[in-house]
């Protein structure tokens, strides 16, 4: 565990290579070290290394929905959309209440320009948590792409009501106001 703690310290100092070295000495035996290493790689833009770490975690913890969704999100970043969708579905089979899986799946479909499927994924997630601001924001983005500006605006306003500090929703309200 000393190497894990050292990895945290180096990461907080922005010494990412030293942090990676420390995490890598223990990540195969310490799940949290592997998660930290993968998440650090994601944050610093080293997506391929993050994918490698989360693939390792998926192999070691095949039923862990958080690992599945994290890997699906990385596949989205890598434009491996089919792999991401498959992992989201697997996560939802394990736990149908996994909001992050619905959110990630919706964003993958959004990136693929499959807006109706994105909307369906959001709707499924909102059945579980109608107050989930991330899903509502995605719904607003999808509705904008579908040219339903009044409904998109309503979603963004609802997000801002729930989370006044949610800047992306405020920016989308402004964008709609400028164009319509």
How would you portray this structure in words?
This protein has helices at 2-12, 16-26, 31-43, 47-60, 65-77, 81-94, 99-111, 115-128, 133-145, 149-162, 167-179. By secondary structure, the chain is mainly alpha-helical. Helix 10 packs antiparallel against helix 11 (167-179). The chain is globular, with a radius of gyration of 18 Å.
Which ranges are low-confidence, i.e. pLDDT below 50, for 5 or more consecutive residues?
none
Mean of residue pLDDT values? 97
Strand count = 0
User: What's the shape?
Assistant: globular
Derived structural class: mainly alpha
Rg, Å, rounded:
18 Å
Major sheet attributes: none
The sequence of SSEs as H and E is: HHHHHHHHHHH
Descriptors:
mainly alpha; 180 residues
Task: Walk me through the topology.
Elements: H1 2-12, H2 16-26, H3 31-43, H4 47-60, H5 65-77, H6 81-94, H7 99-111, H8 115-128, H9 133-145, H10 149-162, H11 167-179
């Amino acid at each position: 565990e000393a190497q894990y703690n050292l990895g945290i310290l180096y990461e907080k100092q922005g010494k990412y290579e030293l942090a990676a070295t420390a995490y890598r000495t223990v990540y195969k035996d310490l799940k949290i070290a592997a998660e930290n290493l993968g998440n650090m790689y994601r944050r610093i833009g080293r997506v391929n290394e993050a994918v490698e770490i989360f693939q390792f975690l998926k192999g070691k913890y095949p039923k862990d929905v958080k690992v599945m969704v994290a890997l699906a999100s990385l596949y989205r970043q890598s434009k491996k959309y089919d792999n991401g969708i498959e992992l989201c579905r697997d996560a939802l089979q394990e736990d149908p209440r996994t909001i992050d899986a619905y959110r990630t799946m919706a964003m993958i479909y959004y990136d693929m320009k499959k807006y109706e499927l994105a909307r369906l994924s959001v709707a499924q997630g909102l059945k579980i948590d109608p107050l989930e601001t991330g899903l509502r924001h995605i719904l607003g983005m999808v509705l904008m792409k579908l040219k339903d500006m009044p409904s998109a605006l309503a979603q963004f306003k609802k997000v801002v009501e729930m989370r006044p500090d949610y800047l992306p929703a405020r920016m989308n309200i402004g964008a709609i106001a400028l164009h319509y």
